[in-house]
Amino acid sequence: MSTKGGYAFRAPRILAVRAESGPVEEEEALQWVASMSHDDKDEEYRVIIATLHGAWESGRAEVTIGVQIGWLGEDPKLNEDQVLHEVGQSDALESAYDIARAALVSLLVTVSLSAFDVPTHSPSPRVFFHDDVEDEFEET
Length: 140
Fold this sequence. Notes:
Elements lengths: L6 E15 L7 E8 L8 E12 L2 E13 L8 H9 L2 H20 L15 E4 H10 L1
Parallel strand pairs: 2-5
Antiparallel strand pairs: 1-4, 2-3, 3-4
């Protein structure tokens, strides 16, 4: 059962922006990464913090956005891996990308990097839970 399109999306906020022009020592890429809170029975929505990062030969830029996603019609039998997959395929996460993309394109102009084509459809997202990041830092 797919729950694509069955998510409520609200309260988008740009949390951080960063851009720089000049030679970049990283591979040209556009990455879309999202971390999500675990299910909380007391809350109707989960928090997602997502970052759109672009690197090009002559500069890089990054926009971080926070949104809330509600689980309208979610199959309660989904395990956590399935939830991550469904969120990654959701219209709600794609809508968050649209907002981050608009901010990224505007940000690129401020550092004279407007010539880059940022696709209207998001690259394949990497989606994980917030505490998975915390666990990574504790292991190092």
